[in-house]
């Protein structure tokens, strides 16, 4: 019987593999994980660390801020992505990201069932969560935060119901997490809200015996210990100061899509909206029962998700377990009033019978994942970044001109140029918006919209080529400028070239000194 438990696939295994097939195997799913060009510079940063056995102290990728101090905050993720890339190519990179995304949802499903949720309700909620979060399933370090947060939330809930020493595992997890991704702050926020919520519950409690502050103290100490553990990174408290400044930056919130509020005009947004309303309704019921810790978590992260779409996957992980648990309580009350042979009673019993199959994992899942890594597995793995997002064909045709040239292009396409041509390639600006800052970032945006003098920018940074999306207003300006020659245009991009003698250079002394 024990052997069968490990050898027969479980429903949790089937859910994990079905998610993998639905989100990433079907259609162009694997390539969708490469829809963000930041993956490119993450890989090259990791390779630098592997090759030099040290973290970079200065910028590796730009000519606009050449030689300036730069920190590889997510260095451990960079090393992981680079190692997978060297071993398996882009296949290894996208597979790791896909497994992390599917693991986060599988953990949330099992967490919800552990809390007593109806298996069918939990399954539907997790599928909606996958749809709401799918736009953020990218081969970037933040996807590892999702898996770490899902596991941490379950560990915390287990401790709240039955305190054990296992919760202190969050301290080494925090030390690991801080080197993986800045999303470790999500755990500290959750811990802080838990400490505050349990303190409010204790304060408002009126038992016959004196109040016990044991739980608030426990979670306050845990919050502090995990916070101290996050100082175990190569940059110490500078990392925290950097992230705080990054999150407060007005220009990043204005310019970077993932920091903006969601637009409710897509299927993914509709799924988020359903979960949002469910979470707020559940928060109201929790407040009525004076369960302030759970209510605070839901309200704070619902607000965060409405302010910034990058927080939607975090909200999904937080809302599903309590929302499905509450929905199950309501369902059971309604089903209890139905006759024994009614559809509601049968549905309830079927959900109960299937729950056990979601509470275990077998060796079959491990075998399936090993098969995915095999080189002859008949799946369409990406060989390059998606041509729907990046002008890969045009860049390949003009590789000899682009490699090493000073190119003005979008930050996303600059990421791809780093991926293709580093170490020969330097770029004007790429996806590291925190590094370039508001002055250069806003200038970049004004140049793309032809709201700043491109001639002055050429004089300062000596642009030789412009690789621009066809919809940029700058493209219309350069078409009319006889000093720029059109090399090629396709449905996605336009490539212009400036002959060396076409425009006098007006380099300022500071830029010239950096170039030397």
Q: Can you give keywords for this protein?
A:
516 residues; mainly alpha; 2 domains; 4-stranded mixed sheet; 4 strands; 3% strand; disordered C terminus
SSE order in H/E notation?
HHHHHHHHHHHHHHHHHHHHEHHHEHEEH
What summary fits the major beta sheet? Answer: 4 strands, mixed
> Which residues sit in consecutive blocks of at least 5 with pLDDT less than 50?
503-516
- The geometry reads as globular
Radius of gyration: 26 Å
Please give the domain count. 2
Mean pLDDT: 90
Strand order of the largest sheet: 1-2-4-3
> How many DSSP helices?
25
What structural category do the secondary elements indicate?
Answer: mainly alpha
Proportion of residues in β-strands: under 5%
Calculate the terminal CA-CA distance, rounded to whole Å.
Answer: 72 Å
Total beta-strand segments: 4
Helix content: 55-70%
SSE topology sketch:
Blueprint: H1 2-7, H2 11-25, H3 29-32, H4 38-52, H5 75-88, H6 90-114, H7 119-133, H8 142-161, H9 170-177, H10 184-204, H11 214-229, H12 237-248, H13 250-255, H14 267-288, H15 292-307, H16 312-336, H17 343-355, H18 363-373, H19 392-397, H20 399-402, E1 407-409, H21 411-421, H22 433-448, H23 454-461, E2 465-469, H24 473-479, E3 485-489, E4 493-497, H25 509-515
Parallel strand pairs: 1-2
Antiparallel strand pairs: 2-4, 3-4
Describe the structure concisely.
This protein is mainly alpha-helical and 516 residues long.
Question: Would you mind describing this structure in some detail?
Answer:
With 516 residues, the protein is mainly α. It has two domains: 314 residues, no CATH class; 124 residues, no CATH class. It is built from 25 helices and four strands. It has a four-stranded mixed beta sheet with strand order 1-2-4-3. Strand 3 and strand 4 form a beta hairpin. Helix 5 crosses helix 6. The relative contact order is 0.12. The C terminus is likely disordered.
